[in-house]
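Lab notebook page, bench 4
Experiment: in silico fold of construct C2
Operator: M.H.
Input chain length: 153 residues
Purpose: comparison with the prior construct
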Amino acid sequence: MPPALLHLASEAEYKAHFEEKYCAGPLITFDGIPVYFSKTKFSHAFFECTRRDGNKNAFSSARAQRMDWIETALKDSTANRYQGWDGKKRQYDPTRRVAVVIQDFVVVIRIKAKRDGSLKAEFITCYKADNSIEKICRSPAWDEQTCRAALGV
């Protein structure tokens, strides 16, 4: 069961909520990976392109209303997890983990290795993948062993 949609009065309130809830410290995934959130990811996650030029130019309340679903996705041990697509290299990247929960809501994180060999991650984005969920679900499954091999740890 997903958390209720978040209804705040303004973009500024959504941004403040994101920074307070996620940027204050890492969120620990169900499998113990700390995920760090940068304030700069707010616009990437909660804006969308209204023209077909690739620039995210408009705040999306529909995206922002699902903000609290990020935690649910990262802490859900039953979520389907896939390797993310690296558009520049035109291949799947085992260090990118895409968690799919609550129908077609996805959360993308990039996993890195700490000096001691443990894993950490950074939040990349989240969105309702209504147009791309079938393609995402055909991606290779994400697994820690393949990720660690790609990281060399």
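Observations: The mean pLDDT is 93. The CA atoms of residues 12 and 47 lie 13 Å apart.
Next step: discuss at group meeting.
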